[in-house]
Every structure is written in structure tokens, then in C-alpha cells.
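Action item from last meeting closed. Structure (256 res):
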């Protein structure tokens, strides 16, 4: 039933409802080629894509199709072999020096990893404070703790939290610096349905509250239902781009 609903809601349409929003990241003919001896693998094969400010973009695709490579290149973690990545119409971050890209990532980008990378000897509030120090604006830590639903757990240490709660601390830490773009590679991969949906709701709430652009890689096609747009990556190319006309609340998506 819900699967049919997704089919009805997600049709390939002109991107009218997205147009009008400014483009935050623009990819021009981006290649990433790995060499095994003389043999090239084109992990990205001439990708063109506009990402709009404040959108939730979900990246789907089979294993080995290039999703993580795309995310790494988009976020400056990895440099493309050729092509441009333009931030806000002016800076080509693909051409930045190592130092400049590190600063850029610190200032403007947030990351949610599958392994949470939290500091065991710090409590919830302190872990989040670590995030806020790196950024360009002082964030209101308490309001962030409340957005991720951890107000009752502020003083707890990481071993006193469940997996989903720890994932939400890592989300809070990532948003504490108010990034303009948040990247997440399989943010719910290690979580059960109930916890995964709570984490997704957190991401949607942050997107609404701070207009943070969200780029989410996942194997779970149900997560596509919360997106503004969904791209399907195949053999290093975007082979389908879907505008989701009727977003579903995280608690109502079909899981898996
Ligand atoms: N460092 C590397 N050296 C050589 N080849 C690589 C490297 N990283 C990725 N690749 C290759 O590039 C292609 C894309 O890999 P990528 O990790 O982006 O896939 P993915 O879509 O994220 O897959 P998964 O869903 O399994 O995480 C694969 O063929 C992979 O083997
Ligand atoms: Mg991957």
C-alpha cells in the first residue's frame, strides 16, 4: 500500500518546485577514476547535478555504484579526477588546496558517520560542545539538544545511551556548528526501524528549523519518501532523478 503510494507520489517531473531556491552545490562533469595498475575504474563518470539550498536529497543505488564516492567528492573529503564542484555560485572547491578545503569543511559542512565517533569520556552536552567550537556561529546547545530529543539525557555518558541516542548525539554535534550542508552516509544503517525513524525525524526537524541542506546516502528505499528529490546512481552516473511531490513523514515511511 505504502509502496504504491510512493510510486504515485514520486514521478519524474520537471523540477519546478525546486527551481527558485538557490543552488548551493553545482557539479559540472565530475569524474573520479581509480587505477588498478593500468586499468581504470570510473567510480564517477561525468556527473552533472545541481543541489538546492534547504533540500533533502537522498542518494540510492546498488553496491559499488558510486554513492560513497559521490558523497566524498561533494563534501571535499576526496578530490575529483576532473570536473568542477561550485559552492554558492562562486567557489570551485574541487580546485581548493588541502588547507583551504579543510577550513571550508570545518566552517560549512556537517557529517554524520555510521560509526558515531563520539568521545566516551565526555557527556552528551560536552560532546555537542566539541562540535560547536569548530564552526562559524555560536549555537544554542540546549535548543539543539531539544531538537534531537535528548533533553533528559544531557548529563549522560556515551555508554549510558542506546545506539539511536548515540546517533542523535552525533547528529547534534554535527548541527551545533550550523553547517549549511549536512552529509550522512547510511545514518540509519545500524539501527532498527523504530530508532531509525526517530533519527530520520531528527534530520527532518533540523532541515525545517535551520534550512540545512541534507544529503543522505542509503540502501533503504523507504527513506526516499522523506526526500525532496531522490537520485539513483548506477555505474558512476545518475540514471534517474525523481522529484518527490508529496513527502511522507518519517514515522509513516515504509521501512526497508
Ligand atoms: N579507493 C579506491 N580504490 C579503487 N577503487 C575504488 C576505491 N574506492 C571505491 N572504488 C571503486 O569505485 C566504485 C564505487 O565505489 P563506492 O564506494 O562509491 O560505491 P557505493 O555505491 O558507495 O557502494 P556501497 O553501497 O557498497 O557502499 C566501486 O567499483 C569501488 O570498487
Ligand atoms: Mg558506500
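Sequence:
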Amino acid at each position: 500500500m505504502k509502496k504504491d503510494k510512493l510510486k504515485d507520489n514520486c514521478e519524474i517531473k520537471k523540477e519546478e518546485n525546486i527551481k527558485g531556491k538557490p543552488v548551493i552545490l553545482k557539479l559540472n562533469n565530475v569524474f573520479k577514476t581509480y587505477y588498478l595498475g593500468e586499468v581504470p575504474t570510473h567510480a564517477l563518470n561525468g556527473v552533472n547535478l545541481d543541489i538546492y539550498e534547504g533540500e533533502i536529497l537522498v542518494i540510492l543505488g546498488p553496491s559499488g555504484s558510486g554513492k560513497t564516492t559521490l558523497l566524498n567528492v561533494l563534501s571535499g573529503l576526496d578530490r575529483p579526477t576532473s570536473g568542477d564542484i561550485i559552492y554558492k555560485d562562486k567557489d570551485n572547491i574541487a580546485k581548493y588546496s588541502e588547507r583551504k578545503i579543510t577550513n571550508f569543511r570545518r566552517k560549512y559542512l556537517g557529517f554524520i558517520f555510521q560509526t558515531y565517533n563520539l568521545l566516551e569520556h565526555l557527556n552528551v552536552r560536552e560532546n555537542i560542545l566539541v562540535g560547536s567550537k569548530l564552526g562559524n556561529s555560536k549555537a544554542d546547545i540546549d535548543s539543539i539538544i531539544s531538537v534531537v530529543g535528548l533533553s533528559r539525557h544531557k548529563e549522560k555518558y556515551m555508554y549510558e545511551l542506546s545506539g539511536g541516542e548515540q546517533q542523535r548525539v552525533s547528529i547534534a554535534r554535527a548541527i551545533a556548528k550550523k553547517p549549511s550542508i549536512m552529509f550522512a552516509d547510511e545514518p540509519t544503517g545500524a539501527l532498527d526501524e523504530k530508532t531509525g525513524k526517530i533519527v530520520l525525524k531528527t534530520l527532518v526537524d533540523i532541515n525545517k528549523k535551520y534550512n540545512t541542506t541534507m544529503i543522505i546516502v542509503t540502501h533503504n528505499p523507504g527513506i526516499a519518501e522523506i526526500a525532496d528529490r531522490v537520485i539513483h546512481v548506477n555505474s558512476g552516473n545518475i540514471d534517474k532523478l525523481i522529484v518527490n511531490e508529496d513527502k511522507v513523514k518519517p514515522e509513516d515511511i515504509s521501512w526497508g
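Note appended to the action item: The mean pLDDT is 88.
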